[in-house]
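Checklist before submission:
- one chain only
- standard amino acids only
- sequence pasted in full

Submission:
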Amino acid sequence: MISDMSALVSEKEQTSPVDAMITQLHEDIRNYVQSQDNGSELLKLEYAFEDIQTYHGNQKRKSGEPVIIHPLRVAWSICEANLDPPTVIVALLHDTLEDTELTKSSIKVRYGEWYAEMVDGLTKIVYPETAYGKQKADQEATYRKMLGTMVKDVRILFIKLFDRLDNMRDMEPMPRHKQRRISQETLDIYVPLSKRLGLEKISMEFSDLCFRYLYPKRYDRTIQKLRTLKKARQFAIQNMGDLLHYTLSRSKLPYNDVDPIFTHPEAYILKKEVDRVLEGFRILVEYPLDTYYVLGVLHTNFSAIPLKIRDFISNPRWDGYQGLQTEIVVEGEVTFIEIATRDMHALNWHGIMAHWKGTSTELAEYYRIYFEQIDNIIGEKEPRMDEVLRYSKIEQIQVFTPKGDIYFFPQGASVLDFAYHIHSDLGNTCIGALVNTSSDNNTNSIQSKRVPRECQLADGESIQILTDSSVKPNREWLNHVATAKSKVAIQRAIRVQNKIRTRQVGKDFFQRELVKLGENVEEFTQSEAFQNALKQERLTWKKFQEKVGSKQIHVRRFFKKYQLVSKAKLDRRDWQVRFLDPLFKSTPPEFIIEDTKDPFLRFAECCSPLPGDKVVGFPTDMEDLVIHRSNCSYIKEAGRQPISVGWNVTDSEGRQGHQIRLITQDGKGVIFQISKVIKGMEANIIDIESGRLEKDAYVFIRLEPLPLKTFHKILSQLRSLKCVVKIL
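Returned file contents:
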């Protein structure tokens, strides 16, 4: 008997706290899944327990703890967040592909395709050691992969957040450089993501841990300073809270708490001077209607600060935040007040995890706006982490349709963005909007302000789009939109216009060639021989015109290939092109520029052609015509045959801002001589930039809008300067 007791005591002594924790986590996770599941996932849960024991069983963390404790803690965090059993199982397996010999195909066979895709989406991508910029490439590829999976199923984001949070909590044994690298990555990526998803509690813990590891000495000083300030101000804060409590109690309003909101250390991660410890007070009530009663009582008894009242109950923030915010003077101090119900506060603090009991579809719907906004920023290309992060840091505004529908946009979005968000056809014909349209009860007239399409949206505005069917998008519109959705729609509309223009250019050129060859255009295009040639090339008549207009098909070679025109006519035409046309300069341009803002045209930056210059055009795969000066070095490198181009632009249309790019001698007084010429022509310089090259120097100048004749005179005088080597 004594021997049995000794063995039992010995066995208990051998059970370490870590082993006990692992056992407890197993039990808690199993109980949670059992309470949530009808039996279909329990077997997979046991498989997951077996697999992490098999593959992680002998692995150790930097802290000396067994690796298996990490996936168990992450899985338990998922349980605490009330997510579903499949997410718990993926959390258990999330490191197996990355750190063990388990394969994606094995997970697919054992658990199913969805599980394999989710676990793979959480697995880092590692390039060969020789790859250039390896660490950055690894990180970008990994996050691109994660984002792609996240958009399909938002549950993967929660696993990734809890995975990083558990790792951050356990970073003490790591080398200093790794602590800093991981903390900086967390601050740059996970903090803004969790904030944007309304997960304030997780975001604050992330920020606090980052502060601790990035700036340990300043972190300790900040903690100490906040404690000192809190102690010094405790009586003043208590008095302010008591006064608020007394005021609300006297009005006999039902409320639960008046709690001070203390400054969190993470608020000073980028600020060195600790200047306050109190952020304000939070008042919690039972029902939404009570929040407005409390606001009324406070504004009746205290002085309210104008323009500081925000109602996020009738119009919740796009990240889900709800509550009323105001600022009032309490005990002579301007004090922030937040008023919310208990349910609202839980949602503001924990996001949907506060009371999510539904399906993954409900979870995805809750964060639908976030992913729509990411799609707005990213557009049709693969998501890149830097773009998502840049978007995450942009403040959001909400605007309304006249019917009251709410739409969210990044700050800086324009009327044009709003129009394209509603429908691409609305955007393509947008000329402006009526802002804050409302009905006047006395006159039944419409009181509103008309703004142009490039006008930026303001928070809370009501927008009614105005259209004109004759309006067409051009490249300038791209400068007036903030979302990728708008940019993609504009570019698509321009491509459609340009395709039509290319087709017309091809048709005109084709018909001119037929006339010069003495052929009847209508009879030729309807002839059986020509139709058969199109069939052999697998082209429609429209597609043929496009390829001729973009110089992908050489008309005379096409005629020769299919023997559509007699050899004598073609030889005579070739002789005319080679000898007579250059001699008499009788060949008209294939394309005439009548409007420098034509979306079909793109003026090359390499040579900056201007109206009046000798130019040629090169068709591109983007369905536009790039205009170069005829002496541009690009022409020698171009693969396609150029289109001859002429000008028909009036002086008033040519009045615009210009750039001058000069290669000059490297010496004193060069800028002075150049500026003297420009000022002598009564032109104003907006910006000037200069620098050294290997032998010479460069000067870039931007001018205010001026007539083309004046600009050409400036160029002529600059060419005569000895210090000017070349005008680009």
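Reviewer check: The two ends are 101 Å apart (CA to CA).
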